[in-house]
Amino acid sequence: MNSLTQSGIDLICNESENDLFFAEEDELTSQNEVRWKIMIVDDEADVHSVTRLVLKDFTFLGKGLTIVSAYSGAEAKQLIAEHPDTAIMLLDVIMETESIGLEVVKYIRETLNNKALRIILRTGQPGQVPEKHVILDYDINDYKTKTDLTDEKLFTTLVVALRAYDTLHQLEQANTKLFHANNELADSQHNLELKVKERTKQLQSKNEQLELALKEVNAAQQMIIAQEKLAYLGMLTAGVAHEIRNPLNFTINLARLIGELCEELLDRVKQPVVNVREIEQIAIEVSSHSKEMELYGSRANSVIQNMLLHASHKGSLIKQLCNLNSLIDEALRLVYPSVRNRYKGFSAVINTDYDAKIGEIEIVPQDMSRALINILDNACYALYEKKSVSDAVYSPKLEVRTHRLDEGVEITIWDNGCGMPAHIIDRIFNPFFTTKSPGEGTGLGLFYANDIIVSKHQGTIHVKTEQGEFTEFKIQLPIK
Fold this sequence. Notes:
This protein is about 55% helix and about 15% strand. It has helices at about 25-30, 45-55, 75-80, 100-110, 130-135, 150-270, 275-310, 325-340, 365-390, 445-455, and strands at about 1-5, 10-15, 35-40, 65-70, 90, 120-125, 140-145, 320-325, 350-355, 360-365, 395-405, 410-415, 460-465, 470-480. Strands 4-3-5-6-7 form a five-stranded parallel sheet, with helices on both faces. The N and C termini lie far apart (about 110 Å).
């Protein structure tokens, strides 16, 4: 065999018959094998034969080649329409006409709208088809002269073109999947919108029902709040009445005693011999008793003033310096008699331990008194409730302590009453939640106490309890 070059492509010929050897298409392709498909478009049969021979063992990414041949521009148009999966076209420009190759390019890109095919122009007459002009005006991917396209350069050109085609093919597949996914998403979105509309109608109907129910609940809550205010006022009034009754009784008794002393003084003066020493002693007693009367009168007046402040809520948002121990003690003396008046026969041992180092702190006295009264009243009720179901051995106890902290004060209110279940601790400060028997409470007392201590005074409330044994409230207030 002899090796010769025609138009720059290596040819291998048989010595005896001078025939060209090349692989037939049916020898390169099997039914189950996936191959790259390339198309050779050239009016010279030798170009087809030699190209097939050179590419006989070509593989890329594990795939060989299937070669389709077209010998004219018209045939190229027909075959590329029949084989749209062609990866590369090796296209001659000058065949039946001088520009037929360029017409094929336009047909592929514009008529068939095939953008993936890699078109490599190769010409033996570059002077008639200037490279710069063709590259700029036509959508081709490479330009080669036949004299330059040796077997090695052909191999490189095909690998570069197939790699680009494979990338585009993968992108096209991804775009197709994305297109189908978008369609499915659009369908799903449409179905979802229909479901949302239907659900919206249902929710609107439910909202209307809930709004109606809410109006009814609000009306009921307003009634409960009014009852709570009346109950609170009643409890406060009972405590105030007790506090006023004591100084009033003392004042009446002292007034009677002073009257008796004055009568005795008149009798002494009328005697022939006046004992000045006895008269002075009687005058001293009258003066002492009058001072006691003034003290008890001031006490009663103070109680009345506090009641007026509670009833009117005047100045309830104004903080002022107040003796916390005195405020707690006053609240305790208001609550305990009121509870005893409500529950006949009830009594408890009350222990107090006030830290004298606390002194005065800045609080809203009326609001803080109300919060303490609510907590103390709950403690007394827990003692009464446990006493009503316990034997004679049980002794109700209530302890109230205060303690000065580094940056605040701590108030502890402890009772050995019925306690609470652990699962309701997180709910006791919710409005309208109560563990009392029907008619005994509205569930607003601890709600108000928590609001006053936490929201208005930036304090904290911690509750520790054991059902059937005890309950302890620890209140901490900051000192500013």
